[in-house]
């Protein structure tokens, strides 16, 4: 049960994410154990932690790709995936879930582009299907987004004709086509060859500079240090430590944080 306070949304509050007491279990194993996290509009939060710590699951609860067992997630005061009746939360119908999910862009580790569609078509499909834009409007926007991720010359290419870094940049453009309030990134560079990582991180840096609210699950410590406003260290389904990069990465308080950073920075 949760009590949600409705808030009016203004341009200065676009993208406020509030995660309250979120629990999630699979087959009796608790993967998230009471997560509380607030991401302010325009903030970049980097989530670090060992494999199996619950990072990706947390990300997927934010846009309701995973339901929560307890707690709530809101964007600009609006519940994602649920509605409140009295003091209880009820899951919405799929159509309404999809509508609210458009507020939250997500980019995955493995690109997830449609192989039978060109880069341009991958970007235009959802806005057209959801009735958010005409074909001409969607095409114009897609071309602008491809330019934004430095892929204007790849509009007619299929995913198999693109490098991993190019595919990931198309995936970012596709997410941006929905004009999301929040962008989620789930280990988006971990499947890339090292020489391709920078081109994806550069696009993410530009989004951060433009004021996009971003939650980034990553092992890229340099990116977290340079770009994040807040760094969160997760382990065993809980937030172990949270704070500015200089504090969490350079002067951590918790032993678990020190151990994790020691292992990561050795590599």
What this model shows, in words?
The chain is α/β, with parallel strands linked by helices and 267 residues long. It has nine helices and twelve strands. The strands form three sheets. It has a six-stranded mixed β-sheet with strand order 8-9-10-3-11-12, sandwiched between helices. Strands 2-1-4-5 form a four-stranded antiparallel β-sheet, covered by helices on one side. β9 (182-186), α6 and β10 (213-217) form a beta-alpha-beta unit. α3 packs across α4 and α3 runs parallel beside α5 (164-176). The termini are far apart.
Write the layout of secondary structure elements.
Elements: E1 17-26, E2 29-39, E3 44-48, H1 55-62, E4 70-75, E5 78-79, E6 82-85, E7 88-91, H2 94-101, E8 104-107, H3 119-129, H4 135-148, H5 164-176, E9 182-186, H6 194-209, E10 213-217, H7 221-227, E11 230-235, E12 238-243, H8 245-250, H9 255-266
Parallel strand pairs: 3-10, 3-11, 8-9, 9-10
Antiparallel strand pairs: 1-2, 1-4, 4-5, 6-7, 11-12
